[in-house]
Amino acid sequence: MGVTDDLGLKQLRGRLPSPVRALRARSFPLRAPTLPSGVAPLPEPQRTGVDFDTNWSRCWSARMLRAGFVEGPMRLMVQLLASPRRLGSDRLADVEGAVIFASNHHSHLDTPLLLTSLPEPWRHKVVVGAAADYFFATRAVSTMSALLIGAIPIERAKVGRRSADLAANLIDEGWSLLIYPEGGRSPDGWGQPFRGGAAYLALRCKIPVVPIHLSGTGEILRKGRRLPRPSQARVTFGSPLAPEPDERAHRFATRIEAAVAALADEAATDWYSARKRAHSGSSGAMTGPDAGAWRRKWALGDKSNQPSLLSARRWPDL
């Protein structure tokens, strides 16, 4: 007689459930606990949009992969499509630490062009403020945006607290921010009024804003076009702007927009003439005439060989 017979386990073997059956019989903690009737379930946590976690994209390995992508495939693509001219980087020679780069926006090519144009030491320690509803709409797109261009989700309809806190914390850690104050790409080739996000962050973090003007990217890959058409683009860096004492975000945003418009004038004419017009406040606006779509298109003219919106045709005075 065996030990199992002595202990009486042979008779119990058929009565005891197997470990697998025992685990299947239990739902918790292997499955989510059931809720009592009448209790509303908690909302599912969001993992896209402004709630997407981008901390992992700033670890050492992700930064090295992104640097290789920027200096390799991205730089080659920009060179083939845009043959860019880069001007004004000497204006940043005396700038140290984190800054906010504020640029006009006409194309999806703008971000690759700027990431390959920013001088050191900012080029590989910059995050891109990207629209949360577009670049962070799904998990896959969010992951690619954060990994390849260092994007962080920004609410473009308003200055959201979550987005602002994330950007401000990164700036405090020494990261610079690339942002498009227009909130989105130009729908018709003209610029759009600047919003206050860049100005608010500069005031909050007490850092300068570097205005940037881009021209030519709308001709290469404008909004609504699927395939790019190679042309020449131009990047013009402006002198850093520091918030004045007791200056509010709205007024500072107006100054940033005026600085970008002056850079557009400089790209269209020459430095001296543009400085004179900027000093007198007559640089003009990049937003175009307040008129119907056909008149705005007519006033924009043929920009194929023009470096700036400000060199477009004007409505004739009758």
Q: What features would you describe in this structure?
A:
There is one protein chain. Helices cover 39% and strands 10% of the residues. It is of the alpha/beta class. The protein has one domain (49-289): Glycerol-3-phosphate (1)-acyltransferase, CATH 3.40.1130. The protein has a seven-stranded mixed beta sheet. Helix 9 packs across helix 11 (249-268). It is globular. It starts with a helix and ends in an 18-residue tail after the last helix.
CATH topology: Glycerol-3-phosphate (1)-acyltransferase
Text of the CATH class:
Alpha Beta
Count of helices?
13
**Topology as H/E string?**
HHHHEEHEHHEHEHEHEHHH
> Count of DSSP E strands?
7
Mean pLDDT, to the nearest integer, reads 81
Net shape: globular
Indicate the radius of gyration in whole angstroms: 28 Å
User: What is the domain tally?
Assistant: 1
Spell out the CATH superfamily. Glycerol-3-phosphate (1)-acyltransferase
**CATH architecture grouping:** 3-Layer(aba) Sandwich
Q: Report the uncertain regions.
A: 302-318
Measured between the Cα atoms of the first and last residue, the distance is 119 Å
Largest sheet: 7 strands, mixed
Strand order of the largest sheet: 1-7-6-2-5-3-4
What fraction of residues sit in β-strands? Answer: 5-15%
